[in-house]
Write a structure and sequence with these properties.
Radius of gyration: 22 Å
CATH architecture: Orthogonal Bundle
Number of helices: 12
Shape: elongated
Number of strands: 0
Number of domains: 1
CATH topology: MetI-like fold
Helix content: 55-70%
Largest sheet: none
CATH class: Mainly Alpha
Strand content: under 5%
Oligomer: single chain
């Protein structure tokens, strides 16, 4: 069966997607970092005189059932969601990068053991695996980040292994080996810098996936616990009053949608720029 060659997007489309994705990610990240300066109210202060108020000039996104300002809670919730995304992807990328390099470089039984471990992990849907593990742990931000990271490294390891299998036969690696360089030096000095392109794309897309996972866990009550805000538990609170307070579901949902869209656009644009198959 003949495969069609991968099509490269036009420069205008690539640059537009990169600019839009970068702009969204930049705005959402800055809003999260400077939330204490931007938020007009304390996100956890209860105001019994402002219960379930609709969006207004005072409360831009309304208030919740305890009178807390939704805009402020979304800003602070963004800090939690983005922090989980960055840390979890950092853990997954580190594990996947090291194991992929080792499997691709040494091959044989080392490769076989690592790849069979990857296959076993991939037999289980990642979200259900996370649910199964997190159920037995105390719901906390640290546990969420660790569990998401420890269950998300398999794709990275496969990508890095594939790159390493190609790179280990390149002339510069052969020259380093002939010059007496050890395996550790060759792997981390010569191969790893040339394998980071796919890893960068995977990490960018992985942040979006981690944000969705954290939001889902918090929505189910297994993630960030009240009164701390996360986009997922704001959505959970909004579900209870959806018929009379639409803003409690719409605005956190839009925050998740826009942020995930931004990271996906950024990741796809980086794939276009870095994938050698699309440079033909």
């Amino acid at each position: 069966m003949k495969h069609k060659p991968l099509k490269r997007r036009s420069p205008w489309v690539r640059h537009s997607l990169l600019a839009i994705g970068g702009l969204i990610v930049g705005i959402m990240s800055l809003a999260a970092v400077f939330a204490p300066l931007i938020a007009p109210f304390d996100p956890n202060v209860i105001n019994v005189d402002a219960l379930l108020l609709p969006p207004s000039a005072t409360h831009l996104m309304g208030t919740d059932a305890l009178g807390r300002d939704v805009f402020s809670r979304i800003l602070f919730g963004g800090r939690v969601s983005l922090w989980v995304g960055f840390v979890a992807v950092g853990i997954a990328t580190s594990i996947g990068l090291v194991l992929g390099l080792i499997a691709g470089y040494f091959g044989r039984w080392v490769d076989e053991i690592i790849m069979r471990g990857v296959d076993v992990m991939l037999c289980f849907p990642s979200f259900f695996l996370i649910l199964a593990v997190i159920t037995f742990l105390e719901p906390s931000l640290t546990n969420i980040m660790i569990v998401i990271g420890l269950t998300g490294w398999m794709g990275v390891s496969r990508l890095v292994r594939a790159e390493t299998l190609t790179l280990r036969e390149r002339d510069f690696v052969m020259a380093a080996r002939a010059a007496g360089a050890g395996s550790v030096r060759i792997i981390f000095r010569h191969i790893m810098p040339n394998a980071v392109g796919p890893v960068l794309v995977s990490a960018t897309l992985g942040v979006a996936g981690a944000i969705l996972t954290e939001s889902s866990l918090s929505f189910l009550g297994l993630g960030v616990q009240p009164p701390d805000a996360s986009w997922g538990n704001i959505l959970m609170e909004g579900k209870e009053v959806l018929g009379i307070a639409w803003w409690l579901s719409v605005f956190p949902g839009l925050a998740i949608l826009v942020t995930v869209l931004g990271y996906n656009l950024l990741g796809e644009s980086l794939r276009d720029l870095l994938d050698p198959r699309l440079k033909q």
